[in-house]
TrEMBL record:
The keyword Cytoplasm does not apply. Signal peptide: none annotated. This is ABC transporter permease. Belongs to the binding-protein-dependent transport system permease family. It is a multi-pass membrane protein. Its main location: membrane. One of its GO terms (cellular component) is plasma membrane. Pfam families: BPD_transp_1.
Length: 215
């Protein structure tokens, strides 16, 4: 109870600081999510339409995904320096993998009979992609977005170790001055942010899947 009281007191006394860190964390994560979402979607569509390149692209994406986040940040520092730009690049590289994989799986999972019927009716490849494949694959793609968003919010905490902003600053400062309450406060806000985003995207995913069942 004493520790919980200490955490609550810290939130009250440093309310403005935590609000500023939360805003910076959301901005950092949102930037990476948008970049990874667009790039991952386009890459997923490309490899789904060009099967010959799917293997190499997925292999490279898997390799990037398995590199520890702190190691990836360290490798990018000599190229990009320290601060938010390096953190955004690292988070984008991590976020691309779920998007590529789920976009590819969703599009290739569309029934070939449906595609053949559309082709027989004179639909172009672009029309088939925009009006058939992507809508039918949207449930799987949203699942990838959900995974990417939660992961990005969580990994963004480590960005403070290279001078980037966000709630990781509270965690890093708490560790350096041996303040467990501050470390816990930053970690708790990141967890709550990730849970909130996951819940909202979960509702979107359910709505999309429900709509698909009605088609």
């Amino acid at each position: 109870m004493d520790f919980l009281h200490e955490v609550i007191q810290l939130y009250i006394e440093r309310k403005d600081w935590f609000l500023e860190l939360t805003g910076a964390h959301i901005t950092l994560s949102l930037t990476a999510v948008l970049l990874a979402g667009v790039l991952g979607l386009l890459l997923g569509i490309w490899i789904a339409e060009c099967p010959k390149v799917s293997g190499p692209v997925l292999t490279v994406a898997n390799i990037c995904y398995t590199i520890p986040s702190i190691s990836l940040l360290g490798m990018l520092i000599p190229l990009l320096g320290i601060g938010n730009p390096t953190a955004v690049v690292a988070l984008t590289l991590y976020g691309i993998m779920p998007m590529v994989r789920n976009t590819y799986a969703g599009i290739t999972g569309v029934s070939s009979d449906i595609v053949s019927a559309a082709e027989a009716m004179g639909s172009t490849r672009l029309q088939i992609m925009l009006k058939i494949k992507l809508p039918l694959a949207m449930g799987v793609i949203i699942a990838g977005v959900r995974n990417m968003v939660v992961m990005t919010i969580s990994v963004a905490a480590i960005a403070s170790f290279i001078g980037a902003g966000g709630l990781g600053v509270a965690i890093y400062r708490g560790i350096t001055i041996y303040d467990t309450a501050m470390t816990f406060s930053g970690s708790l806000l990141i967890a709550l942010l990730a849970i909130l985003c996951d819940g909202l995207l979960g509702l979107v995913e359910k709505k999309i899947k429900k709509g698909m069942h009605l088609i």
